[in-house]
Amino acid sequence: MSGNLLPATERALFRRLAVEQSETRTPSVVAGVVRDSELIWTRGRGRVRGSEPTRNTQYRIGSITKTFVAALVLRLRDEGLIDLADQLDDYVPGTAVGDRSIADLLSHSSGLGAEPPGTWWERVPGVGAQEFVDCVDSDAMRAAPKHGFHYSNTGFGLLGELISRVRRRDWTEALELEILRPLEMTRTTLSPVVPHAEGWAVHPWADVVHPEPAEDAGAMAPAGQLWSTVDDIGRWLRFVMGDSGEVLHPDTVTEMRSPGSVSDGDEWLMGAGLGFQLWRHAGRRIAGHSGSMPGFVAMAMADPNDKTGVVFFANSTAGPRSSLATDLLDILEEHEPRIPEPWTPSLDVPPDWLPLTGQWFWGPTPYVLQILPDGLLDLSPWEGQGRSSRFRPGRDGTWVGLDGYYQGEPLRIGRDPQGEVTHLNLCTFIFTRTPYGRDAPVPGGSLDWMPAREVL
């Protein structure tokens, strides 16, 4: 299946998929590529019950489940039922992590261990909610400093229980009512529904396989229980990119994609937002999640700026490499880079916005303010170094920062008695039409400029 891709592009995508299935000796793999609002390509390789897998074949998606749990938590926050700064004890008391915030759990920075105490939870029937909560004692904590990144499946088990207690219904019921039905994701379920793949372990030194268990994880199900299809996760990737329907406001999805913790230092390549994994690849900032359970691996990632995403599923415990996803993105970009839409004049720019545009100075540093096609203002340094932000109009004549250093900060327009624009007041910083302009309230006063020879 393709969405008007060139034959060479389809062949290159399929070849990469086929190479991965062959080299990793995976029983079956299916992948899809999303661009804008369309699943533009999908193919399967290998066999599921004698047939090639399709976009409608279910696979276990593992930790991609966490992104759905996070969306349910953010819905509670947006409804005012919780705050991300609230402590877990406010809703699920009795654990050793009760003094950590909900945001800490979402961003894997609570200090909890990676796995719950006891038996390897992915391969045995799960325990009930209260038994699970009771086992998260001091032994479940790790020595890593609070707020440092440490991936925790246990934390998402606790978040699932938080959802259940605040909603007064099982988290799976909330998932069905609040996310799956509104987004028409009819093939995403807690247990497999035919047609679905079976999970296998492939022997490392012989071409034989062994069936893997697929137990109900009980209270740990929010960490990785769901099954889904390329079709459904293709729709979920559109959600990750901001096409969130009535489930969440796009600004909340943007918040979920913002780094909450990083795993590898100053120039990070991987980290965590609020329920999303984050990566940097070839100039892209990517959000999504990987997934694995016995017998299955999965990946779903999206580039919100390019409106492009990739999903793949495989039914092998040690299946395809995660690089398959970024390779498919790279192939699409190499073979069919986007052709820009033709420029057309805007028909609905309010006339009183035009005097805001043009060059401004923060002290002696030149900036440019322009109106974007989507009705936002963009304030960026003239030569590219400095703080950039976009702004959305508010109801009281101010503008509110959407990203960067000025996210959430008010931009106020200064005017003279005749109503002419004289300066911008951004988070107390005064931007003027000339460096330290005399007609604006610059703290400390404007400057008398003098030749350098007089001061050097």
Automatic annotation (TrEMBL):
It comes from the Bacteria. Residues 349-433 form the DUF7586 domain. Residues 16-323 form the Beta-lactamase-related domain. Keywords: Hydrolase. InterPro entries: AmpC-like, Beta-lactam-related, Beta-lactam/transpept-like, DUF7586. Gene3D superfamilies: DD-peptidase/beta-lactamase superfamily. GO terms for molecular function: hydrolase activity. This is Serine hydrolase.
